[in-house]
Amino acid sequence: MKAILAALLGVALAQQPTCEFEGGPNDRYMLNLTSVRGYHLEFKNGPGNHNYYYTPCVNGERCYQGNAEFYGNAIQMNPGANTCNHLLAIDHHELPTYFFGGAAWAFQYRDGQLCDQTQQPRAVNVWMLCDENMSGGAYLYDVDEPDTCYYSFTVRTPLACVAESSHHANCQWRYRDQSNNSYYLDLSSQKGEVLHGAESPNGYEIYYSPCQNALPCYQQSGQIEMMSIVENRLTRTCDHYLAEWQEGRVEPIFHNNNDPSEVHWSFHYYLSEKCSNGLQGEETIRWWCDMDAKNATVLNATYDGDCRWEMNILSDLACPSNEQYHAHNGFKLHKLVYDN
């Protein structure tokens, strides 16, 4: 009988689709778990001194409840009697979401066995955490129960890693200090926005399109698209281009401070048009931490008279305490060290 069940399970696994998922900004990131699909991952002596098992992408865990037999992708076992205590989750080909703040992919399962205490189905969050030190495979690194019948599984795998250059192209950056603490800036939500300062007394205004070259500027060689320009508001023409997007290759400098109002990220762009005095142009764009400024509020946009331009922006996106860097879709990366 065991041989027949094993054969049937093998056929079921073979019939499952490949385990590939798209996510991140514009669905440009890829998580491919095909090589570990059906792995029997184990974590011993977890919450309640139970053992926990998880199979990526497949309902490969068997759980007996009385005379009934259930299959899911996550279960809780009693190690002493080697019996299944609870069916925790069932795989319905749920799609993960990419969580930049933890370099992880998050699966959410909400259909486990009914919890006696809450009278709600057991819930499991599976975090596929990027581990560049692994050569391949995956292992269940930690299991936690932060709330009653609410479980957090942490799986370490190099398959979850997204190239840092891809993050930059999607308007996301990470800074790691000498103490190995990580800080994040995610401006991907600002793509498509156009920010501008106040009109100057002589009729000029600085414009900025985060994360893309979206501002037209006519030059002798023809019209080009730039990330930041100076526009003559009287003639409605581009007077000067200030910066190119460069696919996110310009990394911001993180300025930390004990005073939260002084915390900011500064971008320095040098692909600017020369001024009439022959000097090479330069633009600095600073994103200042302000939890009351949702998304982006331009504080000021200035010109120093020496071909250097500046724009200062207040934003909750620049704050390390922003919940989006510590939680995703309503649940937190519980107990994880973010820079692992």
Question: Concise description?
Answer:
By secondary structure, the protein is mostly beta strands. The chain is built from two helices and 28 strands. A five-stranded mixed β-sheet has the order 9-10-11-13-12, with no helix packed on it. The chain has a five-stranded mixed β-sheet with strand order 22-23-24-26-25, with no helix packed on it. Strands 3-4-7-8 form a four-stranded antiparallel β-sheet, with no helix packed on it.
Corresponding CATH architecture of the largest domain: Distorted Sandwich
Low-confidence stretches: 1-16
Note the beta-strand portion: 35-45%
CATH fold name of the largest domain = Cation-dependent Mannose-6-phosphate Receptor, Chain A
Number of helices: 2
Tags for this entry?
340 residues, mainly beta, Cation-dependent Mannose-6-phosphate Receptor, Chain A, five-stranded mixed β-sheet, 2 helices, 28 strands, elongated, disordered N terminus
Question: Could you characterize what this model shows?
Answer:
This protein is 6% helix and 43% strand. By secondary structure, it is mostly beta strands. It folds into 2 domains: 145 residues, Distorted Sandwich (Cation-dependent Mannose-6-phosphate Receptor, Chain A), CATH 2.70.130; 131 residues, Cation-dependent Mannose-6-phosphate Receptor, Chain A. The strands form 9 sheets. Strands 9-10-11-13-12 form a 5-stranded mixed sheet, with no helix packed on it. It has a 5-stranded mixed sheet with strand order 22-23-24-26-25, with no helix packed on it.
